[in-house]
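Catalogue entry: protein
Contents: sequence, fold tokens
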Amino acid sequence: MKKMLKVYLVLIAFFAFVLSGYSQVTTSGISGKITDANNEALPGATVLAVHQPSGTQYGTIANSEGRFALQGMRSGGPYKVEISFVGYNKATYTEITLYLGESFGLNASLKEQSVDVAEVIVVGSKPSAFGTGKTGASTNISTEQMTLLPSINVMVV
């Protein structure tokens, strides 16, 4: 009887393991590479994808090679994708449709944009060591409180 119970448990565990391999994929993704006009990677470029019907937003930043990957996105569309980087014109892609379980390839090349800065003002101040912005534990003791605190006397004979 115990031997049959063990066989049934092993069979149930086997079928549970096999059936877990047939799970469904319910999402899609977008991946690609962001470069400049000279085909050099733009690490730190921002990618923002918006699912138009629901307004769901997905965002990421390009890695050191200029590559990005957005996973776990809703299938379907349309999507609007905006890619931006400081000093470059923003690239916008619309009417992108994602298919179930697939990653849409989107490679972008951004063009340089001239930035005109009129004036930059840097203001700073040295923080006081006794200012109110201190962090951590602290205790202030007056002279009167100091005389009332217990002390230890060690007598050397």
About this structure: The chain is about 15% helix and 30% strand. The first strand starts at residue 28 and ends at 36. The beta strands are 28-36, 46-51, 57-61, 67-73, 76-84, 91-98, 103-105, 108-110. The CA atoms of residues 48 and 59 lie 4 Å apart.
